[in-house]
Amino acid sequence: MKKILFLITKAEFGGAQKAVFDLACALKNRYIITVACGKEGQGDDDLISRLNEQNVKGVYLNHLKRNISPLSDLLAISEIKKITASVSPDIIHLNSSKAGVLGSYAASQLPASNRPKVIYCIGGWAFNENVSNIKKRIYLYAEKWSARFKDIIVTVSKSDRELAIKLGIASPEKLVAIHNGLNQNSLCFLKKDEALKKLLPESIYKQNNKIVGTIANLYKNKGLDYLIKSAQETQGVIFIVIGEGAERTSLERLIKDHNLTNKFLLVGSKNNASSYLKALDIFVLPSLKEGMPWVILEAMTAGLTIIATNVGGLPEMIENDKTGILVEPADNQALTTKINYLIQNPLTAQKMSELAKEKIKEFSLEKMVAETEKLF
């Protein structure tokens, strides 16, 4: 059997980690799989822990970190070379920007006889993030420079592939778009009342408000500050964010400054977070940057009406005003308007959620695995 080494920057379980997990588990009976990642976000429910439960080999790398650090990056390259030489994979499957740059360069330094095929999967270009122009230029240069070491570059949306061609990151022949795919049978949702009781204090639960919410790591790119601001101009609505992250303190301060303490709740991370989705009446993803977010597929499966920003692959998932609503990023007034519209027009909201349930059939795990396996 062929050997595959998956490499990803962080252990913390998010969208990119889910892609690696699903692929590794789907392929484990046909290939010898090893997954390596950095230690950021290491914990009982991280990527490696979940893989171990599925009898897939996973290892931590001490020096692979998200932030740029010359010393750590050099040490990470050395670590990646060592594990690649040890595993001797036929294919190295790189995921996320940092792993893509360092992993592809490390593979290129191996003897030609031991050099694996390099496949790089990017869930969303880092230079599209809400960072300084200097960082944007650095990220773009890194992608262009490292593309020479990659045999295939997989984007999760057609729009990201087109952008890569436009910016000259790689030739069209090297770039492939493969949508994320969801195993709907793996999802199990709590009933609405049960989910609400687990998420909300009893005093708020009994108020019988409409519930608007999202599942997101508390990062700047998720645009949660705009969702907080949008909450000011809604009536009879409670907002819930399931997730944790570095921006918690600043978001809590913003909630307090806008007098939304009892209206906008950061409930923290939850194991099997998608199981709580039916607690919501409306799902909102206010991201400033996205690839092809799994949580949208999960929200569609749960039968929720969705509002999301017009970024990344989201327009390929949501047909505006038909299977959901798209708004421009960083526009809290647009979020407010559309949230109020859906609350005031429940039949329209219901129709959108029904059509979204049909749309989800286009994004199956089987299709994602089959298209990925063709690249091997």
Detail the topology: elements first, then pairings.
Blueprint: E1 3-8, H1 15-27, E2 32-38, H2 47-53, E3 57-61, H3 70-87, E4 91-95, H4 97-108, E5 117-122, H5 133-146, E6 152-155, H6 158-167, E7 175-177, H7 192-199, H8 202-205, E8 210-215, H9 224-230, E9 237-242, H10 248-257, E10 264-268, E11 282-285, H11 294-301, E12 305-309, H12 314-317, E13 325-327, H13 332-344, H14 346-359, H15 365-373
Parallel strand pairs: 1-2, 1-4, 2-3, 4-5, 5-6, 6-7, 8-9, 8-11, 9-10, 11-12, 12-13
Walk me through what this model shows:
The chain is of the alpha/beta class and 376 residues long. The protein folds into two domains: 3-177, Glycogen Phosphorylase B (Rossmann fold, 3-Layer(aba) Sandwich), CATH 3.40.50; 184-362, 3-Layer(aba) Sandwich (Rossmann fold). It is 40% helix and 17% strand. The protein is built from 15 helices and 13 strands. It has helices at 15-27, 47-53, 70-87, 97-108, 133-146, 158-167, 192-199, 202-205, 224-230, 248-257, 294-301, 314-317, 332-344, 346-359, 365-373, and strands at residues 3-8, 32-38, 57-61, 91-95, 117-122, 152-155, 175-177, 210-215, 237-242, 264-268, 282-285, 305-309, 325-327. Helix 1 links the parallel strand 1 and strand 2. The longest helix is centred in the N-terminal third of the chain and has 18 residues, at 70-87. The protein is globular, with a radius of gyration of 21 Å. It comes from Candidatus Portnoybacteria bacterium CG10_big_fil_rev_8_21_14_0_10_36_7. It holds the Pfam family Glycos_transf_1. Residues 13-183 form the Glycosyltransferase subfamily 4-like N-terminal domain. This is Glycosyltransferase family 1 protein.
